UniProtKB/TrEMBL annotation:
Superkingdom field: Eukaryota
GO CC, any one term: exosome (RNase complex)
Self-association and partners: Monomer and homodimer.
Subcellular location: Cytoplasm; Nucleus, Nucleolus; Nucleus
Listed name of the protein: Nuclear nucleic acid-binding protein C1D
Organism: Vespula pensylvanica (Western yellow jacket)
GO BP annotations listed: maturation of 5.8S rRNA; regulation of gene expression
Length: 134
């Protein structure tokens, strides 16, 4: 009788986990639909579009990686590993470009014009001083 109860408790736990997986899948599907909304994508800047595309590619590859694991296939020996490595390099490159653009010092044109204008300033000569020098 105890063996039947243990089997039943394992079944209940399995059903509970399957329900959780199903609910997570539905939430994920809703987020993917939102992420694929062209109205949102069109409003993004080029930098944000790059980040978005890299994130979507990496997410899809991660999902495929998990699928391979569930099928008992070692993903480290699959082509997906090379694709993930390529995406990681692309993400690093995008970060370098973004950092370069945001951290690079900028010239304040107005301040530079004031410096130049003030360095070229010559004092006015008083007429009194002009007459004494003659």
């Amino acid at each position: 009788m105890d063996a039947d109860f243990e089997d039943l408790s394992h079944d209940v736990e399995l059903i509970s986990r399957l329900k959780q997986l199903y609910q997570a899948t539905l939430r994920f599907e809703d987020r993917i639909d939102l992420a694929n909304d062209p109205a949102i994508y069109d409003k993004l800047s080029n930098s944000d579009k790059i980040k978005y595309n890299l994130l979507m590619s990496y997410s899809l590859n991660s999902m495929f990686w998990m699928y391979l694991r569930t099928e008992g296939i070692d993903p480290t020996k699959h082509q997906i590993k090379n694709e993930n490595d390529r995406l990681k390099k692309s993400m690093e490159r995008a970060k370098q470009i973004n950092d370069k653009n945001t951290l690079m010092p900028r010239v304040d044109k107005n301040a530079a014009q004031r410096f130049i204008r003030n360095s070229l300033w010559e004092p006015k000569v008083n007429e009194k001083d002009n007459n004494e020098n003659k």
